[in-house]
Design a protein that fits this description.
It holds the Pfam family HTH_30. Belongs to the CdaR family. It comes from Streptomyces nojiriensis. The protein is an alpha+beta fold. Helix content is about 60%, strand content about 10%. The model has no long low-confidence stretch (mean pLDDT about 85).
Length: about 350
């Protein structure tokens, strides 16, 4: 069936309705208006172009003109009512289609990122949204000072920038739990790097984490979880830098894989610091600055806004309380591991 034939089907009865209303000068009845709305919905569902449909309505109205009263006001009024009702139905069907598409997309994204669906079926659905899950993919997650949704200006701006920069690429941009997300083929790190740059600028200094590339539908979940973990670790550890790569932070999950063992190490190694004046936290901060500066006392003192003498005193105090010397290579490894564990675990917490 051609578009012209389909359009004619949606005009069935239109001229009769317009002619009958014009003959008496009345407005269209509720049933007549609803019939035009129904035809508008059917036309939208059939995918007929709106411009042609309006043109056909106006052309059909011309056939009524000879039977209309001398004044064309009645005809114009009736045509306006009929076309307006038709457009209302057309728009209603389009809005419903958009809502259904959005719901399907959101369901797909939830299944993709949480792995809560049959992987074979998920791979089939993925092609509809521009992904080929037989390939390896990597995921970048951006977190800003406020939550973001799909319709937000920030999300739209980043999506436009990325898709304009990489036309034709198999890229999925979306949001989840207030974060911005980009899924790209694993062999195209330039896409995620560009996304990270755009997200950092658009979120006014937000932070972006990029998971490793993994194959298959389950690989997207794995990479997404790595990116989320990297953001969490960066927050706990106070790591600098706007862009984090999960591959650079693999040591932290390893250290906390056996949580009980890490808690025992932290407590046994750093527990005595609780007895210090001011509690353990200032001395843990001292160790953190000392290790982060490569065990260079002058640099650590600068970071803490202390004199070198004051820093040296704190290090000696730590040695005295823990029996572990931060300057000794053997003791240093134990202390540094314990300090990392303390930061990951939020130890010692509230000491008040």
């Amino acid at each position: 069936m051609t578009d012209r034939t389909a359009a004619a089907d949606h005009l069935a009865g239109y001229a009769d309705i317009v002619g009958a209303a014009c003959a008496t000068g009345r407005r269209l009845s509720r049933d007549e208006l609803e019939s035009r709305r129904t035809e508008g919905e059917r036309a939208a569902e059939a995918g007929l172009p709106l411009r042609g449909l309006i043109r056909d309505h106006l052309a059909a109205a011309q056939t009524v003109r000879p039977a209309a009263p001398s004044s064309s006001d009645a005809l114009l009024s009736v045509v306006e009512q009929a076309v307006d009702a038709f457009l209302e139905g057309y728009e209603r069907a389009q809005q419903q289609a958009v809502r259904q598409e959005e719901a399907a997309r959101r369901e797909f994204i939830d299944d993709l990122l949480y792995g809560g669906s049959d992987l074979g079926r998920l791979a089939e659905r993925a092609e509809r949204f521009g992904l080929r899950l037989s390939q390896a993919h990597a995921v970048a997650v951006a977190a800003g000072p406020e939550p973001y949704g799909d319709g937000f200006r920030v999300a739209r701006g980043i999506e436009t920038a990325v898709l304009t920069r990489f036309p034709g690429r198999q890229i999925l941009l979306t949001t989840k739990d207030g974060r911005l997300i980009c899924v790209a083929p694993g062999d195209q790190p330039d896409v995620l790097a560009f996304f990270a740059k755009q997200a950092y600028a658009a979120t006014d200094g937000g932070r972006v984490a990029i998971g490793r590339s993994h194959p298959g539908a389950g690989g997207v979940v794995h990479s997404y979880e790595e990116a989320l973990s990297a953001l969490d670790i960066a927050s706990r550890m106070g790591l600098d830098g706007p862009v984090l790569h999960a591959v650079d932070l693999l040591v932290y999950p390893v250290l906390t894989r056996d949580r009980q063992a890490m808690e025992d190490l932290v407590e046994s190694t750093l527990g005595p610091l609780r007895t210090a004046r001011g509690g353990a936290q200032p001395l843990i901060d001292t160790l953190t600055a000392y290790f982060d500066s490569g065990c260079v006392a002058t640099e650590a003192a600068r970071r803490l806004s202390l004199s070198v003498r004051a820093l040296t005193y704190r290090l000696e105090r730590i040695h005295s309380l823990t029996a572990a010397d931060p300057a000794d290579p053997v003791n240093r490894y134990t202390l540094q591991t314990a300090v990392i564990g303390a930061r990951l675990l939020g130890w010692p917490g509230d000491e008040s």
